[in-house]
Amino acid sequence: MLILVRSLIFNAFFYVNTTFMLFLALPTFFLPFQAIVWVAKTWGRINLFMLRVICGVKFELRGREKIPKGPLLVAAKHQSAWETFALVHLFDDPLFIVKRELTWIPIFGWLMIKGRMVPVDRSAGGQALAAMTERARIELAANRQLIIFPEGTRRAAGAEPRYKHGVAHLYASMQVPCVPIALNSGLFWPRRTLLRIPGTVIVEILDPIQPGLDKEVFFKRLQSDIETATARLIEEGRKEIEAKAGA
After folding, report:
1. What is the pLDDT of residue 1?
2. What is the CATH number of the domain that holds 239?
3. pTM to 2 decimals?
4. Three-state DSSP state, 25
5. What does the alpha-carbon distance between residue 188 and residue 16 come to, in Å, rounded to a whole number?
6. CA pseudo-torsion sign 154, 159, 161, 162
7. How far is it, in rounded angstroms, from Cα 168 to Cα 165?
8. What is the pLDDT of residue 85?
């Protein structure tokens, strides 16, 4: 019951914070796009702070020193809404590939356009992939870091992975290092539930994959690296949850 109450309190503060930051971001329409990126990073840091204070959900980052400087393709495991805000502040000038429909949302979508996110029309097939690749190339040429979730949607912690080949296409087209990210956020911010489970979300930055590999070699290595590390982090997180339950 206590976890539910704390989760509901956090969720209320989360939406208040989100609404406040959206209005705070309105003046950035008249500023360089980096201003909205700064707002997004601040929004993420505040959410992490509230999660820790209200719900007891902490954050541990491993391997930050492995992040190269300059343009990057960042391929992260996607288990929860948590990583959509928590990963942003780890990079100098991040952007996401997003569903085109999100850019239609008043204020929120306009700010995504201002922040130069890369929209993709999933119904347009190969044409959408080509347009997405061209936009991504432009942004990476501006020294940015493109964060992509290779599975395309959230997968529950421990669920069978379903990686899509779009990440391999981007890797081959961009010719920049790819930084894989493993995490266990789905244990503490499960999808499709209001509950926020006390514990430590671990994010692990893995060894960068340098450009130049064959697409299929890259694709298999990326999945192997992320899934091997994620399985280890999930096991570590489950032990923490069991230890708290038995205390």
Report:
1. 79
2. 3.40.1130
3. 0.92
4. coil
5. 21
6. negative
7. 5
8. 94
